[in-house]
Amino acid sequence: MFTGLGAHFLCCEPNKVILGLSPFVLRIFRHRAVPIPFEPTRSYVYKAARYELLPRIAEIAREFGDEPFLLREISKQLLAETYTPEQLEIRIKKAKSDATEKMSNIFGFYIPFLAENLRVFERLGGGQFRNISIDEELAEADAVATDVDSNDSGIIYAYSFPAIMRKDGKFPIKVGLTITGNAEERVTQQCKQTCCFEYPVIIKTWAVQRVAAVEEAVHSTLEARGSKRRAPGAEWFDTTLEEIETIVKFVQPTVRPVSRP
User: Fold this and answer.
1) In total, how many domains does the chain have?
2) Is 142 within a domain?
3) Claim to verify: residue 118 and residue 156 sit in the same structural domain
4) 51 occurs within a structural domain
5) Is residue 218 part of a domain?
């Protein structure tokens, strides 16, 4: 029976918050809801690495900020805290081979492999990794939510620029979504480009269920009305706040506006 990290089962209920982890990283781990019984198999090592060790490693790695770190040093420490030396020395048969390797070595393969392929960290080479920047995390988190069949809740936002906004009549408005809970950060991340001539203004935000489906309904309706702008930037429409809000409320009558400072 092992103790420490493995006994706490860090990824539990979907609404549990693991302090220090970004929304995107949390989405990677949340769906594992049951404990993983220890057994000396490669399948167990994979599941334990992904659902128990990586969340804790990601939490510890936040202390490094943007600085590179040696993933194997964090992994080695957590493995020692989680398993007994005897467990880590257990030899497990390789697939399609009579050869065996230590459980610790299998963890040593799966942890960096999953960390890179699940985009938990950026691999720099030489055993060094780095946390994914907040801009990348926000963009990737919202990319996950673009499936219209998803049940994710989130925020629909509408923004424009002061120079092109009008009190009466239609003007260019960007309509997008975020599941991170922070429309300001998402808009700022989008506008960190030389083509943006001034700071954007968020006109209004709405908290909705099935956020991707609501966004798709708004986009499709405005495009069907001939409001979509022909421009390199996507999701821009010649419209009004009232028109957008009418569509959002029609699609989801229980929608509520999000108060902002």
Assistant:
1) 2
2) no
3) no
4) yes
5) yes
Candidates 235, 239, 232, 231; CA nearest to 165 is 239
Specify whether 97 is located in the same domain as 161. no
Percent pLDDT > 90 in the chain is 41
Residue 70: other Cβ atoms inside 10 A = 13
Quick one: 14 and 118 in the same domain? yes
Determine the pLDDT at residue 38: 93
Beta pairing, strands 236-239 & 128-131: unpaired
Give the residue from 87, 15, 12, 85 showing the smallest Cα distance to 55.
12
Q: Which residue pairs from 16-20 have beta carbons closer than 8 angstroms and sit at least 24 positions apart in sequence?
A: 18/55, 18/59, 19/59, 20/58, 20/59, 20/62
Residue 97 CA to residue 48 CA, distance in Å, equals 23
Domain that holds residue 125: 5-132
Angle at the Cα of 21 from the Cα atoms of 187 and 66, rounded to 5 degrees? 75
Contact 131, 121 (CB under 8 A): yes
Provide the whole-model pTM. Answer: 0.47
Neighbours of 160 (CB within 10 A): 19
